[in-house]
Amino acid sequence: MTEMTYLRAISDGLRTEMREDDRVLLMGEDIGVYGGAFKVTDGFIEEFGADRVMDTPLAESGIVGTAVGAAVVGLRPVCEMQFADFVSCGFDQIVNVAGKMLYRQGLPVNITVRLPSGGGFSGGPFHSQNPEAWFMHSPGLKVVAPSTAEDAKGLIIASIRDPNPVIYMEHKNLYRRVKGEVPEGSYETPFKARVAREGDDLVVITYGAMVHTALEATADLDGASVMVLDLRSLVPLDEDAILRAVHHCSKVVVVDEANQTCAAGAQVSALIAERAFEDLDGPVLRVASPDAPIPFSPPLEAAVLPSVERVREACRQLLEY
Amino acid sequence: MATSSTDVPIGPSSRAQENPSAYLTVDDRVGLLGAMLFMRAIEERAMNLYRQGKVPGSFYDGFGQEAVSVGATWAMAAADRLCVLHRDLGAHLVRGVQPAAILSQYMGREAGITRGRDGNVHFGDHRTGCVGMVSMLPDMMLVAAGMAMAFKLRGEQRCALTWFGDGSTSRGDFHEAMNWAGVQHLPVIFILENNQFAYSTPIKQQFAVNPVERAAAYGFPGVSVDGNDVEAMFEATRIARERAIGGGGPTLIEAVTMRMHGHGAHDDMKYVPKALVEEWRQKDPIDRQSARLKELGIDVEALRQEVRAEVDAAAKTALAGPMPDPATATDRVFHPRDADEILLGDGAAPWSGFGS
User: Fold this and answer.
1) A69 at the B interface (CB within 8 A)?
2) A194-197 and A226-230 as β-strands: parallel, antiparallel, unpaired?
3) What are the structural domains, with CATH classification, of chain B?
4) Does pLDDT of B1 surpass 50?
5) Catalytic residue positions of A?
6) Which residues pair with B163 in a beta bridge?
7) Which CATH topology does A194-319 take?
8) Is B183 at the interface with chain A, CB within 8 A?
């Protein structure tokens, strides 16, 4: 075990898999010589060369589309969108080409698309988004979102090895803020939920950066015992783990950093309404960003993103129900 | 073959040479005609089946454009890879897809290439090295560029090819693919199938400068070819492939042709001047290749009969096949982790130049 940041853990996972499998190559804007906008691939070009750490033209559709072509003839491309927001420019290739290839033609598309996502540092409307739900809604794509350093490494390795297109959400606000013990060598994190903290009175169901917000908000909540369930994978969604947690706690707060409408948490809430109604001892409460672009100015951004205080308030309200 | 002028051409500028390629044997030339006859016979049969209500949705064909896909595919090696579009059925036939599987595909049957998951010419039999199109047509230019990128990275002497239409040249993926291929000097062939109309939109409303001229701006050659001459299509593609596998980079080939039918079976094409269709009818690619072969003493009528009989039998087989089981509608959305890896396989490559 080595202690490292979430960002270094992603690097470590990529490096580990590239050493083990020469079919793996990285593609993206400024990832080679510069080492990536966030330095995830810093030093990679020296070890693996410019062919496997490919500085591409500034063309997101091009990155995904050529990755699909390379994948169906045997490579394992890992695409970096410089910011998750820019994936909108590659959306068509992901949704229509990559996501539907297997269903239509029996041809799997083994690509991983890394999306540095999320707000909290005045990135403004085009460097702060959480677009995971766009892809959850589109068949044939897996979507994962680690919250810890250990899972960041294990999920990037598992994503590369998965024969399907995987959208890997990496939260920018966790890159250097979150550190943890990370196992040496190669390992995979399953596409399953994880109990981030055990508890009995209420469960907060969330993923990504909001796992840390939820842990902080409920660490000392008037003596209440609060479970935090970290989904880790949004597609497939670990329905059993969600239903078990609801059965155990009976009160549920669902937190998304993404805009509220049709977010991952909406799917979680619908699942609970359909299959765990009898287990509930109160309404399912949701905390998410309102349906507005993520603003630039710090007080405006803070007013939009779910805060520790908002999560705490929702939990208190439900505990008193 | 000539580089085009700045004028947007509405047809081939000169009559096809009698022997556009010195690389074709008589067997090759007969094979080219045979594949075009198959394409036409299958599509005509499918149009009848559509009118009988046996082909759901609409039906899209490549009537009059058979030379474009047949000629180009004939020049491709087994290990090469293709992204095939909806007026390019000939590519599938040359690569070895069977007529019964194609007719089953059109009718949404279980024995179709996509097992009813997708319709009409939206298919690719991965065993033959072909990726089927999506409806956002120039997307496939990037997929082809990506295959070529992999070949280049691995140092393989292989080439990728894709087709797209005049309408596709207006979309961003056209630019991204052309630029990417130029920057990385990829072994890829882009065939612009200029059939004068994108649905109802004529090319003069699609571009101000013929897209074949844009190739130079991306750093590689663009050539215009008589798309209704199957041997000229073969020769242009053969040259482009030779350049590609020799490390010379991409080529854009404009195949100048005409969409003789509506965009789909539902389209009466009233926006196309009748005189224009009539003019192009005189340039029919099958008639032209038939005339060549008749001069060589080939019994073209016998070939025609043979093809017709085979397509009749294929239609019978396809019609007898079952529809897919509705219980399987959500199968195969994801590939199981422990399942075997599936990659594109090698297709048939009948050209005598490959020494089969």
Assistant:
1) yes
2) antiparallel
3) 27-322 (3.40.50.970)
4) no
5) 127
6) B191
7) Rossmann fold (3.40.50)
8) yes
